[in-house]
Amino acid sequence: MAMPPVSQPIGRPADHRPSGPSLQLHAKRTARRLAWFSIARGLLQVLRPGDFARAIGTRGSVPARLITRLCGLREIAAGVGILTTPRPATWLSSRVAGDMMDLGLLGVAFTAPSARRSRLLGAMAAVAGATVLDARCAQRLTGPPSTSGRAVRSRRSITINRTAEELYRFWRDLSNLPRFMEKVESVSLIDDRRSRWIARGPLGMRFEWEAELTEDRPNQLIAWRSVPGSQLDSAGVVRFQPAPGGRGTEVVVELEYTPPGQEVAAQLARLIGQAPEQQLQQDLRRVKQLMETGQIIEARPALQSVEGGLDTRRSRSRTPRAVSVVRGGSR
């Protein structure tokens, strides 16, 4: 049945969205507001770096003030670029890259014992929101995804020590998919060919979309696509074929999609490790564990308490401590 890329946002049908010219006009106005906001923030960072650093939860040390000033200059440049360029999508894309850098810097600051973590969390949430707004605005200024013609294709495979009949039956029952697809929260049937999906995308965003079955060969393959009118055009197929030497079944998944925002959204997803091609291989490893052992075991770094907060710094040992988490045991 349908299994769209789980880490990408899927839009609503086109008849529920404003027309192209309306979106372009709204995006240009939004871009100008973002430009003035960028300039204002940049001036504050350049003129009062210590106050700005302390306001977001750091100590305002000399290195922090220097980094704050540099980020401020970047913000001013991006704002001026947006205001003075007829097609500001490139400058908005630079803001997305800058936002991702800011999130990384805030993450590093979060590990400091003297950090004010509640303020840093607020700053990270604000930057994440700005990242989404920048990416969506850049998307609308570059035109609808269907006109780009730049589909992203991905193919991944894994050998599972189970028969093709077992794997097909498991995969065909859509209620099983969230058990190994990390980003999928739920899948519900609409009818015998269509299903509704709810998943988490980049930066924890929550998305809903519909998908439809296009081909179903018992014990051989399942093919799907997003319904017409989706903001993201996607399609895929999962094949079940005998593995060499009678070692079970080779599961081959092929995906093709056009990401919203084109290069901007695709690069953003890859930067945070949530592009469909990255997530796909992880999900295949999970389904292998689930089918062969009846459970999924994940390794997570142990967290240590530091002055009442959380220290997420990695252990110096070459073998970091981890805790086992069991997900989706066999039913």
Q: Can I get a quick summary?
A:
With 331 residues, the chain is of the alpha+beta class.
3D architecture notes:
This protein has 331 residues and is of the alpha+beta class. The protein has eight helices and eleven strands. The strands form three sheets. A seven-stranded antiparallel sheet has the order 1-7-6-5-4-3-2, covered by helices on one side. A two-stranded antiparallel sheet has the order 8-11. Helix 1 runs antiparallel to helix 3 and helix 4 (89-110) packs antiparallel against helix 5 (117-141). The longest helix is centred in the first third of the chain and has 28 residues, at 20-47. It is elongated and about 70 Å long.
Number of domains: 3
CATH superfamily of the largest domain: START domain
- Return the CATH class of the largest domain: Alpha Beta
Helix segment count? 8
The Rg value, from CA coordinates, equals 23 Å
Order of helices and strands: HHHHHEHEEEEEEHHEEEE
Overall 3D shape: elongated
Major sheet: order of its strands? 1-7-6-5-4-3-2
What proportion strand?
15-25%
Q: Biggest sheet: strands, sense, closure?
A: 7 strands, antiparallel
Q: Give the helix/strand class.
A: alpha+beta
What's the CATH topology name of the largest domain? Answer: Alpha-D-Glucose-1,6-Bisphosphate, Chain A, domain 4
How helical, in percent, are the residues? 40-55%
Q: Compute the separation of the termini in Å.
A: 20 Å
Looking at the overall shape, the CATH architecture of the largest domain is 2-Layer Sandwich
Return the average pLDDT rounded to an integer: 75
Low-confidence stretches: 1-20, 144-149, 261-265, 301-331
What's the count of strands?
A: 11
